[in-house]
Amino acid sequence: MNNIYTIFVAAVLAVLASSNVQAADVQILNVSNDPTRELFKEINPVFAKNWKAKTGDTVTINQSHAGSGKQARSVIEGLEADVVTLALAYDVDQLYQKRKLIPEKWQTLLPHNSSPYLSTMVFLVRKGNPLGVKDWDDLVKPGVSIVTPNPKTSGGARWNFLAAWGYALKHNNNDEAAAKVFVNKLFKNAAVLDTGARGSTTSFVEREIGDVLITWENEGHLVLREFGADKFEIVTPSLSILAEPPVAVVEDYARKHGTTEVATEYLTFLYSKEAQEIIGKNFYRPVDKDIAAKYAKQFKPLELINIAQFGGWEAAQKKFFADEGVFDEIYGPGK
Amino acid sequence: MNNLRRTALASVINLTLLGISDGYAADSVALEKRIHELEGRLEKMDQLEKRLERLDRLEALSAKYEPAPVALQVTTISPEVAKLKTKVNTLERKLEVQEEVNTAAFKKLPIFDGGENGFKITSSNKEHQLRIGSSIQTDYRNFLGDNPPAWIPGSPGWYGGVGPDSIFLRQARIILEGYVFNDIYFKLMPDFAQTSNTSNLIPDAFIDFAYEPKASLLVGKYKPSIGLERLQGDANTVFLERAFPTNLAPNRDMGLQLHGSFAKPGYKTEKSPGAIDSKNFFTYQVGITNGTGDSGNIAMNGALPNSSTQFANNKEFDGRIFAQPFQHSGYDWLEGFGVGLSGSFSNPDHLALSAQKTPLGQSQFVDYTSVNATTSGTITSNGNANRIYPQAFWYKGPFGLMGEYVASTQTLNANGTTSGTNKVNNISQTNTASHVQLSYVVTGEDNQFEGVKPIRNFDPAKGTWGALQLAARWSQLTLDNDSFKLLNPTKTASEATEFTIGANWFLNKYSLIRFDYENVWFTGGAGTSVTKGGVTSYNIADRPSEQVLSTRFQLAF
């Protein structure tokens, strides 16, 4: 009788295992941060064409864009992304920390710490730079109205914050108290804190709010291209931060969808010469040395600090952006 | 523009009142104060904006007659107006951002639903759900004629041991069911009207891994898929108590079941987690359980009523197929016809046997503890046992018909008292039972396996009275004659036949008042025994018929 029982259970499991169905056409979802819309709109069809030629399969890449932190939370809460392409490593890492959706060592799975493109944070001002903004200390002057997203929801805003903090430390002999006063003044001058970088662009460009927009370098160039260089200009500060937006396959979901292979290939493709060209054209800084050299002249030279100087993202998040961190201290309830 | 601002402001107020605020909002009083301030500022800015619009119109008018150079146009807007315009834009944007934040927060809240399908809490991503339900049944049973019937051996088998002509709680259940991660269903249903662990304190406690409708795996304590009327929900049966065939199948058992549902080709399979599916074109269930014998319940810890050890090595296997072959056929009058076959087999080892009782009166008419003069000890089920259950229903509009037949075979075992000691008597017993029930919803609602849903709820003030269903049932249980090689024929009837009529008054979807009148006739089961010269003979008589009138007040959701 025990044997019959064993056979019965085995039969049940076999039936369940054989009931998976494969889809004919492939669809993957790329959950990304705000300013990458145009970049992936250009990259996706090129990859789809390559994939079709290689495998004969038709791949459709769906895009979802919002503030990086917000997007990470959505994936953790069940948005079934096959890949994420977010603003910073901390947000991607949360997919492992909170739900083990990706491997712990996800950053080692692709070159350059899984960042196929780089960027930095610059200022966008109105044509003629009426306030004569040149560097970070111009932004904390009384009466200057700045626009930046909210570091609680936006990855770009966290890069902005750290760049300002780094500048303040450098000009105050690494005095953290002085840096705190500096960023306090900076955020006091914030007219509105949007939830994502694209929202801030809308506030500054379309709603004509603020004197200075602190934004991604590529976003600044995109504004010049879309709205006209006769209306805005980019101001590159003396110091900013090297933003390394990372990418990762959300292995749990990809496995569930049967898309692990195409999702991995999609992200690997971002390092190809073809994709790096598109990255350069969209004003991101390519990681491919040849392509980076080709597009170097479109970026003004500046001093770049990096996240390692803050002890990595985990430490930076805990110190500055976690509940009751520095940002809450200067901008939290009642501030 | 004004509308946009007002909508945004109203959203902030509404969401604030709902207790939703972003991470930086102060307490509600402070926020309210801020909203009042903002409203005041908006009023002022509305006025200024109107002035600005007037200025713009004047500017446009003058430009029509005398186009001005660009530089001149810019200077026509005073710095004060430009500043105010920026303020308005900023305020608007802040409200939009606030609304975005609040909307995002709102989307993350679980959804509480107290509507048509009971009380539900669903996670914001809809992946998890908990439904809270309940079933309360309060019955009054009244024996007509002798009270209590003098011929009932021992105490009547009433629920909870209460006497006849009593008011008692038939069910007091809390139903917790739902799903996690979309596909894993669960049900936990304690019944506080039951008096002990062995009397089915937790009728249902199962998990159904329903990833694929064609092959789902249910594990736990549930109704084995054998008898059709047994599978009908307790709140949805036509009569207060089920007919005789149900008593030859297990009530609740523990085990696992592979089950699947198929739609007619070209149609979508309706998801139907749990052990019962009356929606799809074709369904099957194959199960393996501990086995409890006829009309048996398994205890929460898996122990059987008599602590039998049979299932240390043996299990009961059951299977059922059921089809509604005319679904989507275009033959409207046959769409609700379903037919199926189920069965089981097992090999129990000295399993104690449950007495057979009348449905409504619960009077014991098959008593396995009363043996004849040539038998000693207790009769148990020991050896091959099997059941076969053809079954069918047919629903069309207000009309409903259901019937099933069962032949249940088991090996009875007891010690003998003749031809020396310890002689073992084994007999094969095949009991049969059948029932047919007819019901009609007088008020015109659809009659369904899942019960009746009134079109108009009971509301005397509005002149609506709910729904009324009338029903009649015939049912019979026949004991194998060989049973009397072991049983005392003056204590056990060889046949019981019942006829019941009932009326169900549905006040609304959840509330119901039932009235049943049941008459049961017996063959045998009474009389006297005479012993002469060491030989016992029986003067067998028919038990008097039993008439019971019963009422139930039910709330089930």
Keyword list:
heterodimer; A: about 325 residues; D-Maltodextrin-Binding Protein, domain 2; 2 domains; four-stranded mixed sheet; 16 helices; globular; B: about 550 residues; alpha+beta; 16-stranded antiparallel barrel; two-stranded antiparallel ribbon
Structure, described:
- The complex is a heterodimer of chains A (335) and B (557).
- Chain A has helices spanning 2-17, 37-55, 68-76, 89-99, 111-114, 136-139, 155-170, 176-188, 197-206, 217-227, 251-257, 260-269, 273-281, 289-295, 312-321, 326-331; strands spanning 26-32, 59-65, 83-85, 117-118, 121-126, 146-149, 190-194, 212-216, 232-235, 239-241, 247-249, 285-286, 303-305.
- Chain A has 335 residues and is of the alpha/beta class.
- Chain A folds into two domains: 8-118 and 244-298, D-Maltodextrin-Binding Protein, domain 2 (3-Layer(aba) Sandwich); 121-241 and 302-331, Periplasmic binding protein-like II (D-Maltodextrin-Binding Protein, domain 2), CATH 3.40.190.
- In chain A, strand 1 (26-32), helix 2 (37-55) and strand 2 form a beta-alpha-beta unit.
- The termini of chain A are far apart.
- Chain B has two domains: 2-109; 112-490, Porin (Beta Barrel), CATH 2.40.160.
- Chain B is 17% helix and 40% strand.
- Chain B contains five helices and 25 strands.
- Chain B has helices at residues 2-17, 28-65, 70-76, 79-108, 228-231; strands at residues 111-113, 119-122, 129-144, 167-180, 184-189, 204-209, 216-222, 253-262, 282-289, 316-323, 337-346, 351-352, 356-357, 364-366, 375-381, 385-396, 399-416, 424-441, 458-459, 464-465, 467-478, 493-506, 511-532, 535-542, 546-556.
- In chain B, the strands form three sheets. A 16-stranded antiparallel β-barrel of chain B has the order 3-4-5-6-7-8-9-10-11-16-17-18-21-22-23-25. In chain B, strands 13-14 form a two-stranded antiparallel ribbon. A two-stranded antiparallel ribbon of chain B has the order 19-20.
- The longest helix of chain B has 38 residues, at 28-65.
- At the A-B interface, helix 1 and strand 7 of A face helix 4 of B.
